[in-house]
Amino acid sequence: MELNIDDIIFWQYEFFKVNATLINSWIVMLLLISVSWLITRKLTAGIDIKRGQAFIESFVVYVVDQIREETHEEPDKYLPFIGALFLFIAFSNIIGIIPGFNAPTASLSTATALAICVFIAVPIFGISNRGFSTYIKHYIQPSPLMLPFNIIGELSRTLALAIRLFGNIMSGSLIVAIILSLSPLFFPAIMQAFGLLIGIIQAYVFAILALVYIASATRVREVKQNNEVK
Amino acid sequence: MVIDWFTVVAQIVNFLILLALLKRFLFGPIQDIMTKREEQVASRLNEARKKLAEAEAKKKNYQHKLDELERSKKEMLQDAKEQAAQTQKQLEHEAREEIEKMQHNWKEALASEKEAFFKELHRQATFNIINILKKLVQELSNSTLEKETVNVFIEKLQSLGKEEQQKITTAVSGGEAQTVSVISSFELNNEMQQQITGSIKRLFLDDFKCIFEVSSSIGFGIELSTDGWKIGWDANIYLEDLKRNIEQLFTSDVETIQQQTTQNE
C-alpha cells in the first residue's frame, strides 16, 4: 500500500515522469470526455429526450441554480469551471472504489493542482468582473495594513482546500486498506460505501467553496454599487 | 508526504485540458440545446397564446354571428307569422266577400226569377180569370163583361162627391187643351164611348175633348185621366190581393227552406 500514489512511477526521463496519478487522471478524463461525447452527440431540443440527456441536463440545471444562488449573476461564465471541478473530483473519487485503482484526488499533488487552479481562477474572474485596479484595491481595504492578512487568507484557504480534499480521500483509502488487513470483507465494503459518499460530498464541498471564493471576489463590486445607489 | 511539483504542473495542464474538452463536448452543447429548447418553448407558448387569442376572437365572432342568426331567425319567424296571419285574414275576407257576392247574386237572381214568375203568373191568372169572368157574365146575365165594366165605371163617376166632381171639373177646364183621356184595357165600341162621353158631360162640363186609348198597363178596367187627376175602376185591385197572398205564401216557404239550410250547416 503506497501512501503517495505519485511515487508509483511507470516511466521517467530526467525530470519528466508518468506516475499513477497522471495515468489515473487521464483515465478519468477519458471516461468523462467519452461519456460526454456519447451523450451530447445525439442531443435533441424536443420534448422526447433520452435518459442520459435528461440526467446531464438535470445536473447542469442544478449547478446553474447553485451558481446563480451564490453569485447572483448569469451562470454561463462560471459553469464550465465549477462543473469541471465537480465532475473531475467526483469521478475520481467514485472510480477510486475499484480495487487496485487509486483515486487521483488521493494525491496531494492533484489536490494542490486543483487548489492552485481555484487560486488563479478567483482573481481572473474578479478582474474580468471588476477591472484590474478595483480588484487589486480590495486587498488593501479597509486599510493597507490588511494587505498581508488578505494575502495570507488567500493562501491559507487555498492550502486548506487542497489539504481537505487530499486528507479526506487519502484517509478513506487508507482506512479501507487498514481494515481490510484486520477484519473480514463486509466491513471494508461498508467503509467503501462511506468512502463513496464522502467522495461525492468532498467534490460538492470543493466545488461550492471554489464558487464561494469566486463569488466573494466578484460580489464586492455589487455591494459597493448598491451602497452608491443608496 | 511530499508534493511532486511536476505532477502538480501536469495536473494543472490536465485540468485545463479537461476544462476545455468538457466545455466543448458537454457544457457548450448542453447549454445550447437548453437555450434552444427554452426558445422553442417560449415560441410555442407565444404561438399558443396567439392561437388562443385568435380562437377567442373567432369564438366571439362566431358567437356574434350565431346571435345575429338567432335574432334574424326570430325576426323572420315573426314576420312569417304576421304575414301568414295577414294572408289568412285577407283570404278569409276575400272568401267572405266572395260568399256575400255569391249570396247577393243568388238573391238577385232569385228575386229576378221571382219577379218574372209573378209577372207571368199575374198575366196568366189575369187572362184566365178575365176569360172565366167573361163566360160567367155571358151565361148568367146575357151581357158582356166589357159592358158591365163600363156600367161600373159610370156608376163610380156618378158616386163621386160634389167636391171631388168640382175639383175634376176645375182641373179639366183649367188645362190648356181641355182634354180628358179615357184609357181602357179593351177596345170600346161606339155605344160604350157615347155612353162614357155622355156621363162625363152630365157630371162635369160640356165643352171638352175626349180621347179613348187602349193600354195593356191596366189589368182589366177603365180609367179617366186629366191634368193631375185620375179616376177609374180596375179588376186588378181584386187580383192584387190574390197576388199578395201567393207572394206571402211563397216568401214564408222560402224562409222555412233557408232556416232549414242554416240549421243543417
From TrEMBL, chain A:
Keyword field contains Iron: no
GO molecular function: proton-transporting ATP synthase activity, rotational mechanism
GO biological process, one term: proton motive force-driven plasma membrane ATP synthesis
Parts of the chain that traverse the membrane: 20-40, 78-101, 107-127, 165-187, 193-215
Predominant cellular place of this UniProt entry's protein: membrane
Pfam families listed in its UniProt record: ATP-synt_A
Keyword entries, A-Z: ATP synthesis, Cell membrane, CF(0), Hydrogen ion transport, Ion transport, Membrane, Transmembrane, Transmembrane helix, Transport
The keyword Transferase is assigned to this record: no
Function: Key component of the proton channel; it plays a direct role in the translocation of protons across the membrane.
Similarity comment: Belongs to the ATPase A chain family.
Name of the molecule in the record: ATP synthase subunit a
Lineage: Bacteria, Pseudomonadati, Balneolota, Balneolia, Balneolales
